[in-house]
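Side project, low priority. Logging it here so it doesn't get lost.
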Amino acid sequence: MKTISRSILLIALIALLFMSACGGAAIKTTPLSADEASQVQALADPLAENILTSLVKDDFALYTKNFDDVMLKVSTQSSFDSMVSGLNKQFGAYQSRMPGKTYLIEQSGQKYYLIIYPLKWEKGSLALQLSLHFEAPHKIAGLYFK
């Protein structure tokens, strides 16, 4: 399978390393109730839209607007440009986002929300996976396309 781009893989690797660096303990994934999921979606949907709009508008500032400090440190204009180019080349134009599935992730006493959004692109489908901090202000702790 052709890789999307090195920058997408780098962001995925960083997110996984960040999650595993919390102690190497097993990750517990819990689906949320409909009410809980609805509340998390209300928090996450605008963040997902910022990410997707940033890809369409080629806007690095919007892309990183809701990142936590770790994500801000590892995200560069160059990696963003490479990711946008790779997505456009392989999948064409972004078209739409479907409602996400929402989970609570726990590892070594740390909690995150994981929201997986199915995405429709001109030439295929991908999923956007966002990890948000459990505690307010719910900054983006991880993101990758799968």
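Brief comment: The chain has five helices and six strands.
Revisit when time allows.
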